Each structure stands twice: as C-alpha cells, then as structure tokens.
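Researcher: Let's try something more involved. This one mixes different molecule types, so please make sure each is placed in the same coordinate frame as the others.
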Amino acid sequence: MENKPLNKTLLIVEDDSSLLLALSDRFADEGFKIIQAKNGEEGLELAIKRHPDLILLDIIMPKMDGITMLKKMREDAWGKHAPVIILTNLSVDDKVLNDISKTEPSYYLVKTDWNIEAVVKKVKDRLGIL
Amino acid sequence: MLKNLNIKTKITLGFLAVAVFSIGVISYFVYNAAKENLRAQIFDDLVLTANTMEGSLLNFIERGKGRAIDFSSDGYIRDASRDVISKKTTALSSGLNEHLRRNKMSLDKTIYGIMIIDLDGRVIASTLDSEVGGTGLASDANFLSAKKLEKGEASASDIFFSNYFGENKTPSFAIASPLMDKITQERIGVIMNFIKTDELNDILSGRQQIKLGARTSPIQKRKTIETYLVNKEKTMITESRFLQDAILKKTINAEPVKKCVEKQEDFVGIYPGYRGAPVVGASMCLPNGWTLLTEINENEVFEGLEKLKLNILLLALAVSFGVSILGYFLASGISNPIKELALIAKKIGEGDFSQRTVVKSKDEIGRLASSFNEMAEKLKEIDRVKSEFVSLASHQLRTPPSAIKWFTEMLLGEKAGKMDERQKSYLLEIARNNKRMIELINQLLNVSRVELGVFAIESEPTDISEVAEETIKELAPQIAKKELNVVKEYDKNMPLVNTDPALLRITFQNLLSNAAKYVPEKGTIWLAIKKEAGNFLIRVADNGYGIPKNQQSKIFTKLFRADNAVEIDPDGTGLGLYIVQSVVKEMGGAIRFESEENKGSAFYVTLPLKGLKKREGVKGLR
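Model: All components are placed in one shared frame. Result:
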C-alpha cells in the first residue's frame, strides 16, 4: 500500500541493483518521488540538474565514488547545502571515510546495522516530515 | 664485557690498541737499535783512544830507552866506568858523576837520576854522590835483565816508589842499558836512568797535548773518562782522575786486567769499575804484562739514551692520542649512520611506514640505507594493499546481507502483500540467520584487522569507568529481560588513562555481553575497576555457567566455543574472546581468567597506568 505523495524528491545513488530496488520501492511506498543513479558520475549530474530534497549516497561505486561526488557537489552553489545521508557498508572509521566530516553529510549509517524502517524515519526526520 | 661496548668504543679502542702496540714494538726496536749503535760506537771510541794512548805510551818508553842506549854509548862514560871498575876505587867516580849530571841528565827533564852499576850490582857512579857504593839494586829485576842485553838494547822496569836520589816515594820507573868496554866490547856494567812518571801521567790524562800546544783535549770534555795503567800485580801504576793517592796502592781486579795478565787478550765491554759504578772500558795489553785501560762511566755514555727514551714515550702518547681521535671520528662515521638506521627501523617496527633515511654515501652503509628505504617503501605499499583489502572485503561481504535484511524486513512488514503466520515464521528464520551472518562478518573483519595489523590506535585520555557505563547501558535490554543484578565497584579518584576508547569499548562489550549471556535469569554480574601496582585492573565476573576445565585452554582461540556455550547461545561466533585478547595486547595490557563450571567465571584485564602512545595505521575496529 502506498502513502499519499509527499511532494519530496529523493535521489538514491547506489551501484548494487538489489539495494537500489529495496530503497526505491520502500521510499516510493512512503510517497517520495525517486530519482536513481548507479554511480557517482550519474549521481552528480542528476543532483545538479534535478535538485533533490535529499540524497541517499553510497560510497563504494564504479566510475566515481561517493566521497568524490560529494566533494564536487559541495562546490556547487545549491550543492553546498544539499542534505546528504551516507549509506555504506564500510566499517566505521575505515580509512576511506577519513575526509567525511569535511563534506558535511547530514548523517552516516552502516547498512547492515540499520533496518530499512529506521532509515525511513531518519530521512523523514531530516526533512522535517512526520 | 667487551660485547657490551658500542661500535664507536670498540673501534676507537681498537685504533688505540693498534697504535699503542705498533708504537710500542717500533719504539722497542728503535731504542734497542739506538742503544746498540751507541754501544758499538763508544766501544770503537774507547778502543781508539786506548790504542792512541798505547801508542803514546810506547813512544814514551821507546824514547826513554833510546836515551839510555844513547848514554850507554857515550865514550867518556864507558872509559870512566871501566877505570872505576878495574881500579876498584870510587875516588874516580866524582868526575863521572859530574859528567852524568851536567852532560847527561840535563838532556832530559824527565830523568831525575842516573846510576852506573857494575856487574856485581854495586853503584859505581850516580848523579847523586851519596848513592855511590850502594848495592840495593843488585837483585833488581830490571838490572838483572839489562845485564843480559846486547849493546844497543835497553830494558824498562815496572813502576815503583823511588826513594833514590833523595826522592820520597816518588812514582818512577828505570830504564837500563848495558855498558860495553870500548875496546873489548865486554860488558862492564849497566847504566840506569830514573824517570818520574809525571810525563806518563800527563800523556794518559790528556794534559800532555795541552802542554804541547793543543788547544783542546776531547778527553777533558767527557766528565768520567780516564786512561790508566795497571801492572802485572793488578795495581794501578798511573794516576786516577778521581781518587787521590791511588798510584801503586789501588788494586784493579776488573776483567780486562785479568784477561791481559792471564791471556794477553785485549778487551772491550761493560763491567764494574773500581769506583763501584759500571763502566764501559777498553784495554790494551802491553808486552810487559801491563794493562792500559780507557774507561768511562756507563751512565755518562747512555744518558743521551735516557733522554731518547723519554722523547719516544711522549711521542708515543701524542701519536696514540691522535690515532685514537682519528679512530673515534672514523668510528662515528660508521656508528652514527647505524644508530640512525636502528632508530628508523624501530619507528617502522612501530608502524610508521613513512620513515625514510637520508642516503649520504655510496659505501656499504649508504647501500644499507638505500635498501632500508626500499624496504620501508614496500612495507608502506603492503600496508596500503592490506588496508585496501580490508575496506573492499567489508564492503563486498556486507552488501548481499544488507539486501536480504531489507527485503525480508519489507516482506515481514507486508509491503509486498499479506503474509500468513507460517510465511512470516519462515521469513523470521531467514532474518535471524542473516543477522547471524552479519555478526560473523563483522567479527571476521575485526579478526582480519587484528591479524593484518591494520588498525590504528587513537590514544587519548580516557575515563575507563565512563566507557564501562556506556557499555552497560547498551546491554540494558538484555539485563532487564533476564532480571540480572549488576554490582559495580569503581575505585575513587581514578585517573584518566591514555588509551584508545574504541579498543576499550570492544573489550567491555565482549566481556560484559558474555557475562550477560552466560548467566541464568536473576544471575549477578560484577564489574570492578581498580588501580593496582602501576596498572588498572578490570574485573568482569559472573555466577553463571562457567567454562568446563578441559576446555579452558582453548577459550581464546579463534572460532572456539565451549560445549555449554553452544547450548546456551547457538548463534555465537566464537571470535569475541580472541578479539578481546588481541585488543588488550594492543593496549599494552594482559588478560586472564578463572572459571568453574556452573559456578561462574571471572575475567581480569590489566592495563598499564602510563597508557599507550599513538600509532599510525589504518582505522579502527567496530
């Protein structure tokens, strides 16, 4: 069953098709408009073009990884303040995530630790939706 | 003890030893050579001097003999003597005496008396009238031998104290020559000249040369050199430079005298002198059994050598010192780079793979340094590869279970349609096993981090009890569910410790969750944090199921689970305690335990008070 449309757009940047499907379906159910990107390059382009309300961002991706995309996006006037939640399966404090605070994501979570319901709640909190 | 010295000291001491040894050996040989040289030279000098003296002495005696022979051929003397002897009257002597005095004795200053003696030994004429008629010389050896001589020959006596001619113990010797009848050529008597030994002494002492006009006498430059004569009876017959009144009194028993007297052998060598000190001396043996000795004090000869010895010693010290300094610098040139490399090796060993050393030379040390840098570079590369692997592994391993987790969640949440109870129960099984797999993956990633050594120690001042409290809060649901009793015992005024809070958290999480897991309902967990003997002591104990004795030795090994533990919690990974042990070790501490089946377990972790210093590496354990 679907909720009524929320008038919010969510950009999901994730290279794994299963996870992308799970996230897209779940958030679509909640009433979000979903934009999908399979790698950082696509994600950057779509973010700048479509100005989503929030971005769910994976880190390890081909062509351009999540950190690089985020850094580039932050250089954009709009991109500087776009809310981003990083979804990753890297361990907390993995070296790759060294620079993460500099890119000011709103949040950072490890996929295997989080129920999808909790992710939904987090997104809604961040957007101020009840 | 030698093994404990550092290279710098060893090399410097080595140089010093070589220098001292070499200089020692060389000095020894040089000194001995110099001494030998000097010895040979002084021997030559002395022999030369003695030889020269002998020459002068023999000349002197020859002159004396010549004089006597000369007198013996005087016509008037022969005629007058024949007259006195044949007429057996000494009334005619006075003329002869006068002749002797005026015409003969005056010719030679050294002659102080002349006698003419008949064949019976009676004095028939003398430069001193009162001597006439005396028969004292009848058995005189010189007289007796002169009697047997031919015309033109003379004989010299030994040196003796003379009381003739009014002398009082004047050292003298006499030269006699036979008198022949002018016509019959028969012996009629002996003419004897009495000579003082003054000129002899002048010759031997070097005064003669000065008197004759020489400006210097080298003999007088030497303080202890002297030449003297010793007769067959081993008595000194010429003057001593040092002793008054030695003539005809002092006995000389030195080796050269013995050799001359017994074997007529010349001698040069070092022997005890007649004054007690050792002398260097050369002897010339005279045909009549006399020994001519030229001697000089041994220490006068060798005093220059003593000075040489001192100079050599000072030189040796200076050179040894210089060589040691050289050795020290050379050694520094070797040991300093080595020390530096050792330091860098230590830092690399502690995990800082960015350390490099400056390659300053092309020699062996330089090559060692280059190899070092290459090795460090490779280690850095390996480190990077390892950490990349771990990152990649965690990402790749976790992705499928994440998908399973979310899809099962959504199915259970009936997002894809209604589920009946059976379907839901099966989905729960899937979810549970997936959770188990995720837990196993997490622990395995931690283990691989521990084994590859790629986690960093982020050391900061930490409050141990605070970390403990946080962990207990996380376990609140389990504690509440099983109605467990938690007894806390924290020391008051505990200082902060420099350690990694993440590592500490892992320790507490594992130990406390184990305690909570392996006690029955309403069981008790004790948590004590104390200070003890330079360490922090953490005690986590329970009154639960304990560990069977025969399985206790394996409790820290990877993937091991005791049988009773598997029964209580089939989903455990068996990795928790292995990780705790590794982590505690990284924090510089130690872990041990006590346990009894069905009574409970107590785990003790000690951490050093001084804490841990920071280490570079890849990042933390979850």
